[in-house]
Design a protein that fits this description.
- With 338 residues, this protein is an alpha/beta fold.
- It has 3 domains: 134 residues, P-loop containing nucleotide triphosphate hydrolases (Rossmann fold, 3-Layer(aba) Sandwich), CATH 3.40.50.300; 62 residues, Helicase, Ruva Protein, domain 3; 128 residues, Zinc Finger, Delta Prime, domain 3 (Up-down Bundle), CATH 1.20.272.
- Helix content is 59%, strand content 9%.
- The protein is built from 17 helices and 7 strands.
- Strands 2-3-4-1-5 form a 5-stranded parallel beta sheet, sandwiched between helices. It has a two-stranded parallel ribbon with strand order 6-7.
- The longest helix is centred in the C-terminal third of the chain and has 23 residues.
- It is elongated and about 75 Å long.
- The termini are far apart.
Length: 338
């Protein structure tokens, strides 16, 4: 049996790999019948030597290869394409591998594990129809929220819909981190329903979320909220330089979203191009982009640069410079929607 598991969601890939191991049977016997290879280096001869060996005191042998599909990824550059073409003509090229891997003995379960595949992967195409192919992209908002609900329930807990949304915004699509935070929350609440207040108190990303909230307030001209959050973050020890970087990051994101909107790109393509895991973040940024002209965004960039220089040259104290910057950026009379 041949499996191909690939995608950015390595947590779900890990879980699926665990399922495959359990389906094989006796885990003690599996320990002596499992081989792991590094895909970029493995040869057909190595795969054949292990894959055709008779399992020892067991019905099945498990072979896991990490990164074999990625070995044949095209990077989109002429030199790399030529290199890929040379590899394909070698005995270990994708056609030779595809021919062999599609005929592995029934006594061997072979699992190819990879990350994100960017283009038309030749080995993936060669093996499609010969393998059980499973893709694991990062969970978007629509699938992430039910996943959180199910994970909390599996751990014996309960969670409010509002808390689910807040947790998704705080942690995002990294399911390793999400699973850890959910476990902490279930222990912390000891049987009662998890609420938004629990997440703000327990989740380690709470301060990071406050940074995002401050940035959003600035770009949405909510001066009172922005100033309050700025003071809270500074009192908690947040670095002024870090806060400037995060604000500049969101401004760049707004510029890119505005340009993609001008090009009439669909939102799914925007998510992929911007490498955003959350539809919520995209919708929020689209709303922010609608409030600004490109001329105003250039002005914002200049204000950020001036604040950074005034801090580095000692012209202003860092906290004073940030407060002045927030006050200037929150002035709605300079708003020009285009």
């Amino acid at each position: 049996m041949l499996y191909m598991l690939y995608g950015e969601d390595d947590y779900s890939i890990h879980q699926k790999l665990g399922e495959i191991k359990r389906e094989i049977g006796d885990q003690t016997a599996l320990a002596t019948n499992m081989t792991v290879f590094d895909g970029p280096q493995v040869t057909i001869d190595q795969l054949r030597a292990v894959g055709e060996a008779v399992p020892f005191l067991a019905e099945k042998r498990l072979v896991i290869v990490y990164g074999l599909l990625g070995r044949f990824e095209s990077k989109g550059q002429s030199g790399q394409r030529k290199k890929s073409a040379r590899v394909s003509r070698q005995p270990e090229g994708y056609r030779a591998l595809g021919e062999y891997l599609g005929q592995i003995p029934d006594s061997t379960i072979l699992v190819l594990v990879d990350g994100r595949l960017r283009g038309k992967n030749p080995l993936l195409n060669e093996l499609t129809g010969k393998a059980k192919v499973m893709s694991f992209p990062l969970l978007r908002e629509a699938k992430l929220l039910p996943w959180i609900q199910d994970r909390v329930r599996e751990r014996g807990g309960r969670i409010s819909p509002q808390a689910i949304g807040l947790l998704a915004r705080f942690v995002g699509s990294n399911l390793w981190l999400m699973a850890s935070e959910i476990d902490k929350l279930v222990l912390f609440t000891s049987g009662r329903r998890i609420e938004e207040a629990d997440i703000r108190q327990v989740v380690s990303y709470a301060q990071e979320a406050s940074v995002f909230a401050m940035v959003d307030a600035i770009l949405e001209f909510r001066a009172g909220v922005a100033g309050q959050l700025l003071q809270q973050l500074l009192q908690q020890g947040a670095s002024p330089a870090y806060l400037l970087v995060m604000l500049a990051r969101q401004v760049r994101l707004v510029v890119r979203v505005k340009e993609l909107t001008r090009q009439k790109k669909p939102q799914k393509e925007m998510l992929d191009r911007l490498e955003l895991a959350s539809e919520y973040v995209l919708q929020k940024t689209l709303a922010q982009a609608g409030r600004y002209s490109l001329a105003r965004l250039k002005e914002v960039y200049h204000k950020l640069l001036e604040a950074d220089l005034s801090i580095k040259t000692g012209r202003y104290d860092a906290e004073l410079a940030l407060n002045m910057l927030v006050a200037e950026l929150c002035q709605q009379d300079k708003l020009e929607i285009v």
